[in-house]
Design goal:
Helix content is 34%, strand content 21%. The protein is of the alpha/beta class.
Length: 476
């Protein structure tokens, strides 16, 4: 499906129009359609008023086209998220037109409209049908955006959406296919990104006890993937994503119900790979290093065990109370290696880390913790440009007290109380004084059901983090 700026050259064969309406304002292009068809007059008789979330679908015999009116609410209250939700829902209503061409009218209120609408429609078109006989029902050939703005914003919106969908593809893969080796193969295909990896013998040599311990019973070879992009004239930004390609819980095994969803424990790593692909394609002028500690977490005769003590790359020792708190153990080695060897200006990690974060924030917010207010503010600012919302959680000395161990420096769980924060406190021991933000994306990385209010998020991986990191890096 291609996205083009509308012109008379592309106008032939338009099958449907998506037309925006405010409660208190009729956009210029919408008024032209009304003058020609009186569709608004007809819609008002059916009590369509332009309220946010409303729609009116009809076929106009004069134009010979389907017309879908979408309500955007009050003009002064329009925001990017309302655009994303309204246009993605509209797209889902017309997506099955065979070889269809859809002309999409924009409100003409904000310069961000082409980017946001393109992004919303392109991510709404995603369907992970690789292993299904019944393939995607999306049959549209072209989307023509009627816009007074240049085509660069359309191209940017499509590029971001493609990277998000690329990330979804990796995260949705079955655990026996989306392995550490698969991640490395995919990363090496990204033009402009240098890739290297560490294997088990390197974990032993470098004393990466977290990665070595968690990966002991893994059948698939574990890896620490390191990707680098951009000029080296400045300190890099370090991005680290948790990549547990399947999490059984290890010896502290999880309940069988819902365990299939533990293929999504690689969503943090998927987002980092997707971000590296996006910034390389758009040639962002930033020096960025992406790291992904990748392994399965399985039980077995040689598996690491509750009661074990692991020594991490920076020399900190951790007592294992639960082998199902494995993400922080592998992240510890990646964070300490990355900060020590690359001397980054800032560090951001993304991890499907704790169920406690889902309990606290639900499925609409990622938990944000960190040691630097300036960096936290940058992430918060970037989140306001995206659909990926973050909420700051506390990270003070009380949580450090909760993870003190009697037999090691720290223990890998501080109990049920403040579970998201004690996980953050654990990670904080591996970044030193480097400005750092931790994003717990456990509640936002995938969905279990259709999102009625967000038509661009079908069940499965969401690609959370890709656009957030891009907007942060772009805004620097």
């Amino acid at each position: 499906m291609e996205f083009l700026k509308y012109s008379e050259n592309y106008s032939k064969g338009v099958n449907a129009l998506i037309v925006p309406v405010f409660e208190d304002f009729i956009p210029v292009d919408t008024r032209k359609i009304e003058n020609e068809t009186h569709v608004l007059t007809i819609a008002k008789k059916s009590e369509f008023s332009g309220k946010k979330g409303e729609s009116f679908d009809t076929f106009d015999s004069k134009l010979g086209k389907r017309i879908l009116l979408i309500g955007l609410g009050k003009k002064k209250e329009m925001e990017n998220e309302s655009l994303r939700r309204s246009y993605s829902a509209a797209f889902n209503s017309v997506k099955s037109i065979p070889k269809g061409v859809v002309q999409v009218l924009l409100p003409g209120v904000s310069p961000e409209e082409p980017k946001e609408v393109t992004f919303a429609i392109a991510v709404a078109a995603y369907d992970f049908d690789k292993y299904r006989k019944e393939k995607s029902k999306i049959k549209i050939k072209s989307i023509l955006l009627t816009s007074k703005y240049d085509e660069a914003s359309i191209k940017e919106g499509k590029a971001i959406a493609d990277a998000v969908n690329f990330t979804r593809d990796i995260a949705n893969l079955p655990p026996s296919i989306g392995t550490p080796s698969y991640f490395e193969e995919v990363a090496k295909k990204i033009s402009g990104v240098k890739v290297k990896s560490f294997a088990r013998e390197d974990f032993l040599r470098l004393k990466m006890g977290g990665l070595e311990g968690v990966s002991r019973a893994a059948k698939e070879a574990a890896k620490l993937l390191i990707m680098e992009y951009g000029p080296k004239d400045k300190k890099p930004v370090l991005l680290v994503g948790k990549g547990i390609t399947f999490d059984s819980g290890g010896i502290s095994i999880k309940p069988s119900e819902g365990m299939d969803e533990m293929k999504f424990d690689k969503c943090g790593a998927s987002a980092v790979v997707g971000t590296m692909k996006l910034i390389a394609e758009l040639k962002l002028k930033r020096h960025v290093i992406g790291m992904a500690p990748l392994t399965e977490n399985l039980p077995g005769g040689n598996a690491y065990k509750p009661g074990d003590i692991l020594t991490h790359y920076n020399g900190v020792t951790s007592e294992v109370l639960s082998t199902d708190a494995e993400g922080r153990l592998v992240l510890a080695d990646a964070l300490s290696y990355g900060t020590s060897n690359f001397k980054p200006s800032e560090v951001i990690d993304l991890a499907t880390l704790t169920g406690a974060c889902i309990v606290a924030l639900g499925n609409n917010y990622a938990g944000m913790m960190g040691n630097n207010d300036s960096l936290k503010n940058k992430i918060m600012k970037a989140s306001k440009k995206s659909w990926e919302k973050v909420w700051e959680l506390p990270l003070d000395s009380d949580f450090q007290d909760q993870i003190k161990s009697k037999v090691a420096d720290i223990k890998n769980t501080g109990g049920r109380e403040g579970g998201a924060e004690t996980a953050g406190a654990f990670l904080s021991r591996f970044v030193g004084e480097t400005p750092w933000v931790h994003l717990d994306i456990a509640g936002t990385a995938w969905t279990q059901k259709n999102n009625s209010h967000r038509a661009y998020l079908p069940p499965g991986a969401t690609g959370f983090g890709v656009r957030l990191l891009y907007e942060y890096l772009k805004g620097e």
